[in-house]
Structure formats: structure tokens, C-alpha cells
Specification:
With 458 residues, the chain is α+β, with helices and mostly antiparallel strands. The protein has two domains: 129 residues, 3-Layer(aba) Sandwich (Creatine Amidinohydrolase, Chain A, domain 1), CATH 3.40.350.10; 271 residues, Creatine Amidinohydrolase, CATH 3.90.230.10. Helix content is 30%, strand content 16%. It has twelve helices and 16 strands. The strands form four sheets. It has a six-stranded mixed beta sheet, with helices on both faces. The chain has a four-stranded antiparallel beta sheet with strand order 8-9-10-13. The protein has a four-stranded antiparallel beta sheet with strand order 11-12-14-15. Strand 6, helix 5 and strand 7 form a beta-alpha-beta unit. Helix 7 crosses helix 11 and helix 11 crosses helix 12. It is globular.
């Protein structure tokens, strides 16, 4: 394999979408129908979807509604209109959701101190909906666990469900229906959803690109973050930007500290469907590195880029997660690199849905999966880190044809990114791979020279 080198490239322009693609209302109805089919296969009479602000992706996927300020509980029986339990502030919003639902006021979902004098007890609401002795209930929340009896929804909800269904009933974790790494409903995306994700990736990657082009010593972190030009889309994770010693922690939010030449620096910007991260040093080039890490590019950034490039090149529909894991382990398995999490994962409205990429994983990647390049060294040394996080999708020929026909401008951007990665960065992609980032695999290790990035091209 060719060795990575630092080359003068210049950050490309791929264009920006004019409008955000909308998810048709009928698609939410189709999603609910698919979930009902799975509930029938799992012998569930009812599915209960719990959502809060941090874990609203499954509810938003099904209905187009996500709770604000308070939690929500979605009740789906085998037939009939779904019910949505909401508090004082979300009642009107839920009634206007793309999916037709029956709003039920349950004021215990409201914020502390708000009125609680107009709703019935939870037990009465659930019983009136039809949940009772002997019912089989699947609860969908945020995570799956080793045992289905473990459910990450509030005790007041799970306890009441178990009391109502009694010893002959079943109340268990059914979140895998939504997020199973092989075939969860939210890991196999329709063309309309992928187009929305491409729009989201344009917003976040263009923001990080703008930041790298405008970053200057003397800026405060809070001044630098304004360069991202966040457009108000819901965030998929908290916004991360730090310089100096705090940057080694990675996950922190910007403060008022002034960025100085020589700083470590990291930025991560995510909205529903997309996330982009970059990390490096605030300097012009390797001549400014301390003597102890003068080989930063050779020892860390180069091997990292070579690993990510091979990972990209191995992507295709039918590839196993274990094969992708082995690529990263072969390149970056030395403890120096500190790779501890899954080298890549699925992305949706939430930044991390699940990951099929693990040692020995036989999960095959499928058409419609949206994936995040998320391979993060944590050296714990003066070498700090490097980071190249972008989003992409996998699409077989029929899905590619549907994407190109339905979203021609986005398709042109995707083809231009593929050509750039091949011709300029030396990363050859399988036809199944659709890069969504407007700075695809573009990695400048020295952030005051964003025109110099890693490449494998001769």
C-alpha cells in the first residue's frame, strides 16, 4: 500500500444544497406499519416507545415529532391509531406531527411545578388504551442490554406496565427492533432519509471547513465556534470545540479561553443525521512541533490516514463488520494509538445508533446503512491525536438509481466527492459508497495550513 504524505491540496468546493429534503408524511405511516409487522413476529400486543430530549430519535423516526422540554410516551397497538402521551408544553406540537396520533395529556411528563390537575393517572391511561393482565409489551427506549428484562425507561413507567400485565404478562426491552446493528429499522434508511442526511452532512462539514479556513491564534474558543454557522437544526450531540490542554479530553464545549499558536485543538459538530470532527495542532507545519514529537505526521497521522483509507476502500454492501475491524487493528493495533472504541458505527438522527464493526463481527453491511467514520486515537501522550470523522452511506445499484433520479443535485455532489477522493487523495471507493461530507477524508494535521492535507496519491 502507498505511504501517506502531507501534500498541498487546498480544501475543495462541492456546493451546498438549496433546501432541506423533507420526509413525506406517508413514510411515517409506512414505518409504523413495518414496526407493527416486527411486533407481530415478536408476539407483542403493544409497543411502548419512551423518548426524552437525549433519546428522541426512535420517536422522531416513527412520527416526525420529538419532545421539547419534557418526555413523551408513544403507545402502538396491533391496530388503530397510535397514542402519544405528552405533557403541558408538547400537547399542541404532537397534534401537528406528520404521523396522525391521538394526543393524551399526561401531566407528570411536564416540568416540575407545572399544573398537574387535568390528566388521569398513568395506570388508568394505559388500561383504557388496552394494556392489561396477560399483555405482551415491548418497550423501546435508548439501548439494548444482555437481558431483555433490563429497560432504560423510567421506573414509574416500567413498574406500572409490569403491575398491569401481571405474572402472566410480558414487559421486556424491544429496542433492538429499532437499532439492531444488522437489520434495525433505523439502520436501513430509505432514499428520502439518506437525502436528508446528505443535507445535514453538508451543513456540518461546511461548518468545520469554514472553521479551519478562518481559525487564527488570538481567537477565543467561543469566537471560533461562530465560524461553524450553525443554522439551527437540532443537534445530534453537544457541540465540541477546545484548544490547549482541555482539547485532550475531546468532549468538552467551547469556553472563553484564547487559542494560541502551538495549541492542541479539536472540533466536533453534529446535527440530526451528520457529524464532522477534526483535530490537530494550531500551527503552520512540523517545524513548529516540540522536539519530542517532531515525527507527529510520520508516527501518528500517516499510519492513521493509511488505516482510514483502507477502511474506506473495503466498504461495500455485504462486507462484514469484522473485516473492517481487522483493517484498523492491523494498522493501529499498537497500544500507542489507543484505539478502544468500535472503528466506525451507524448514524441516524442520533450520532451513534449502533455499530456492526467489532472483533469477529459477522454482521454484513446492507444497502441503506448510513455510517460514520469514527476512528479516534487516544494516545495519552504529547502526540495528542488526529481525527477524521465524516459520514457516508452504502447503496446498491437500485438505491443509487433512486437517489440519482430523486435528488440529482445531491447526486452530483456525491460523484464529485468520490472523484476527489480517488484522484486527489488516492482513496478508491466501491460504487456502493456515497460520501456525504463536503470535506471527504480531508485531513490537515496543521490547522493554520488547511491547504495541506494527507494523501496517498502519487
Amino acid at each position: 500500500m502507498l505511504k501517506a504524505r502531507l501534500a498541498e491540496i487546498g480544501m475543495p468546493e462541492f456546493g451546498m444544497p438549496e433546501a432541506r429534503p423533507e420526509i413525506p408524511a406517508g413514510l411515517y405511516t409506512a414505518r409504523v406499519a413495518r414496526l407493527r409487522e416486527r411486533a407481530e413476529r415478536g408476539a407483542y400486543d403493544w409497543l411502548v416507545v419512551y423518548a426524552d430530549r437525549e433519546h428522541s430519535a426512535s420517536l422522531a423516526y416513527l412520527s416526525g415529532f420529538d419532545p421539547r422540554f419534557e418526555e413523551s410516551i408513544f403507545l402502538l397497538g396491533s391496530t388503530g391509531e397510535p397514542a402519544i402521551l405528552v405533557g403541558n408544553e408538547c400537547y399542541g406540537m404532537a397534534a401537528q406531527a406528520p404521523l396522525k396520533m391521538r394526543p393524551v395529556l399526561f401531566q407528570d411528563l411536564s416540568l416540575p411545578g407545572q399544573p398537574r390537575d387535568r390528566s388521569r393517572p398513568l395506570a388508568e391511561i394505559l388500561a383504557d388504551e388496552g394494556i392489561g393482565r396477560g399483555s405482551h409489551v415491548g418497550v423501546i427506549a435508548g439501548k439494548t442490554y444482555a437481558g431483555r428484562e433490563t429497560i432504560d425507561a423510567p421506573a414509574y413507567l416500567v413498574d406500572e406496565l409490569r403491575r398491569l400485565t401481571g405474572p402472566t404478562g410480558v414487559v421486556e426491552n424491544a429496542t433492538s427492533m429499532m437499532i439492531d446493528a444488522a437489520d434495525g429499522l433505523r439502520v436501513i434508511n430509505e432514499v428520502e432519509q439518506l437525502a436528508a442526511f446528505e443535507y445535514a452532512a453538508c451543513q456540518t462539514s461546511d461548518g468545520v471547513r469554514r472553521l479551519l479556513l478562518g481559525l487564527q491564534p488570538g481567537m477565543s474558543e467561543s469566537e471560533a465556534v461562530r465560524l461553524l454557522h450553525w443554522n439551527g437544526m437540532p443537534l445530534s450531540c453537544h457541540l465540541m470545540l477546545t484548544g490547549g490542554p482541555r482539547a485532550s479530553l475531546g468532549l468538552l464545549s467551547p469556553g472563553d479561553r484564547r487559542i494560541v499558536r502551538g495549541d492542541r485543538f479539536t472540533v466536533g459538530f453534529g446535527v440530526w443525521g451528520a457529524l464532522n470532527c477534526r483535530a490537530g495542532f494550531v500551527m503552520d507545519g512540523p517545524n513548529e512541533l516540540p522536539s519530542g514529537i517532531a515525527d507527529y505526521v510520520e508516527r501518528l497521522v500517516g499510519p492513521y490516514f493509511e488505516a482510514v483509507a483502507e477502511w474506506y476502500g473495503a466498504l461495500h454492501v455485504g462486507q462484514t463488520g469484522g473485516a473492517l475491524w481487522e483493517i484498523i487493528d492491523r494498522h493501529l493495533g499498537d497500544p500507542f494509538f489507543g484505539i478502544s472504541l468500535n472503528p466506525g458505527h451507524q448514524i441516524h438522527l442520533d450520532e451513534w445508533v449502533n455499530s456492526p464493526i467489532a472483533r469477529g463481527s459477522r454482521v454484513e453491511l446492507r444497502s441503506g446503512m448510513a455510517l460514520q467514520v469514527d476512528i479516534i486515537p487516544a494516545t495519552g501522550t504529547d502526540y495528542f491525536t488526529t481525527n477524521l470523522e465524516d459520514g457516508l452511506a452504502l447503496a446498491d445499484q437500485s438505491l443509487r438509481e433512486a437517489f440519482a433520479a430523486g435528488h440529482p443535485a445531491a447526486w452530483q455532489r456525491i460523484q464529485a466527492r468520490r472523484q476527489f477522493m480517488n484522484d486527489v487523495l488516492g482513496i478508491a471507493l466501491h460504487p456502493d459508497v456515497l460520501p456525504f461530507s463536503n470535506m471527504p477524508a480531508y485531513l490537515p494535521p496543521f490547522l493554520l495550513r488547511p491547504d495541506r492535507a494527507m494523501s496517498l496519491a502519487v
